[in-house]
Amino acid sequence: MRVHIVSQHNRTLYLHELEAMHRHRHELFVGQLGWRALESPDGLDVDEFDGLDATYLLALDNDGELLGSGRMIPSWRRHMLRDLFPQYCSEPVPVGPDIWEWTRHAPPGRTRSRETNLAVNLALNIAIVEFAISRGITGITGLLEARMVPFALSIGWRNRPLGPPQPYAEGMAVALLNELWPGQLEALRSKAGRTSPYIVECHCESDLTHMQRASTTAAIAA
Predict the structure, then answer these.
(1) Which residues, including other chains, have CB under 8 Å from residue 2's CB and lie 6 or more apart?
(2) Among the four 54, 83, 161, 175, which has the fewest Cβ within 10 Å?
(3) 175-219: per-residue pLDDT in tens?
(4) What are the distances in angstroms from CA 14 to CA 33, 107, 129?
(5) What pTM was computed for the model?
(6) From residue 21, how far is each of 42, 46, 93, 183, 205 by CA, in Å?
């Protein structure tokens, strides 16, 4: 499994995978979690923040099948916490060149085993830190379901609440600023039994083809 960085600069390489991501998000958030506000007749979860400012992290298996995803948006652009949900914050929403928002975190869900969900969750969390380091990001904001805070703490995130938990239609959520800390990446990789990076960023078709061949070779060798 690798986590591919997909931005406006290379998204034409991932048109099939991006459609799979939007379809999986709808299946997860609407079909499994019951978020009716996101329901769409075409079975795709696409919102106003799925534009050129969005960078996606797509967890793909060795055959290129989507396992999970996440979305990152720079805080100096329009993003969900500042522009849709500022009421979750008791203080100004943090913004700056080193702060990005993490939204639409989408693990496999009920279609996969608990073990696969944990592995993909860890991979996406590690990839977020790897991505942050590659971009000079020191803080990550977002809304997190309150029930998921213990898991986030257990894998090393240092969550600073920006306000108290508040109800939404399907549960409780809390606005957080996650400040990266020295050694966080190594600690996360240790939990996953991983030493090499998860993220890969392809810039042309030959990059993607080479990476896919390498993944296939490694899977056969294993």
Answers:
(1) 59, 60, 198, 199, 200, 211, 215
(2) 83
(3) 999 999 999 999 999 999 999 999 999 887 666 765 665 554 444
(4) 26, 19, 22
(5) 0.91
(6) 13, 10, 28, 31, 20
